[in-house]
């Protein structure tokens, strides 16, 4: 029994530090993996924004006036913040109402009120209605999410912003406000754009996505 005592002590001396080392290696690997995922997400978003800027610079595709396009050097955005990519519970409506959504220039366009997205953002419980275009011959499979928030008229366009999301296949979906974009009306009055319904006005500020556009004078 006596000769075994030093071995048990030695075992404790070396085994515990080894566990600590393995734990630290595990934490380090997790941090590296998280950074890689974040870097991939940021890169994807930056490529998306670069593509948008290329469209805005294109004479045939740009929503800008000729004067603004000539001096255009890229849209202004809030810093990328993954906290604004929220997981939402999707309530698909049993009875999908047909609605005529009012546009600027006193026009109306057909939509189907498809469902409601329920989510939390900075501990605030929010919900936004999701719409599906009901125009004839449309091949659009994305849901339309127009919204207003507390930044409108200050940091962002006064008429609100939009997000397009893929039609969910189950009861959960990601709504990423970093992809929020302005209606074309924010760039020129010649466009006709859907007005944000009253049910999609948030009391909080969404500090993500595109900011308001400063036109040339």
Give your account of this protein's structure.
The strands form two sheets. The chain has a four-stranded antiparallel sheet with strand order 3-2-1-6, with no helix packed on it. It has a two-stranded antiparallel ribbon with strand order 4-5. The protein has two domains: 2-57; 75-200, no CATH class. The chain contains two helices and six strands, in the order ααββββββ. A hairpin with a 5-residue loop joins strand 1 (85-102) and strand 2. It has helices at residues 5-57, 66-70, and strands at 85-102, 108-121, 124-133, 142-147, 161-166, 172-176. The protein is of the alpha+beta class and 217 residues long. 20% of the residues are buried.
In short:
Helix content is 27%, strand content 27%. The chain has 217 residues and is of the alpha+beta class. The strands form 2 sheets. A 4-stranded antiparallel sheet has the order 3-2-1-6, with no helix packed on it. Strands 4-5 form a two-stranded antiparallel ribbon.
Keywords:
about 25% helix, 2 domains, 6 strands, two-stranded antiparallel sheet, alpha+beta, about 220 residues
């Amino acid at each position: 029994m006596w000769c075994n005592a030093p071995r048990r002590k030695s075992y404790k001396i070396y085994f515990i530090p080894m566990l600590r080392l393995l734990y630290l290696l595990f934490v380090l690997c997790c941090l590296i993996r998280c950074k890689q995922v974040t870097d991939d997400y940021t890169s994807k978003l930056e490529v998306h924004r670069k593509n948008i800027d290329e469209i805005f610079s294109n004479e045939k595709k740009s929503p800008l006036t000729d004067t603004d396009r000539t001096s255009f050097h890229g849209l202004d955005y809030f810093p990328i913040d993954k906290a604004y990519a929220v997981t939402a519970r999707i309530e698909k409506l049993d009875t999908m109402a047909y609605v005529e959504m009012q546009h600027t220039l006193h026009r109306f366009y057909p939509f189907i009120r498809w469902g409601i997205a329920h989510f939390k953002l900075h501990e605030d419980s929010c919900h936004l209605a999701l719409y599906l275009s009901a125009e004839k011959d449309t091949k659009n499979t994305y849901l339309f999410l127009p919204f207003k928030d507390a930044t409108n008229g200050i940091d962002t366009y006064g008429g609100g912003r939009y997000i397009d999301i893929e039609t969910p296949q189950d009861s959960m979906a990601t709504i990423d406000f970093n992809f929020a974009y302005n209606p074309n009306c924010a760039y020129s009055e010649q466009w006709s754009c859907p007005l944000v319904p009253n049910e999609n006005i948030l009391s909080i500020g969404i500090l993500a996505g595109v900011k308001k556009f400063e036109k040339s004078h």
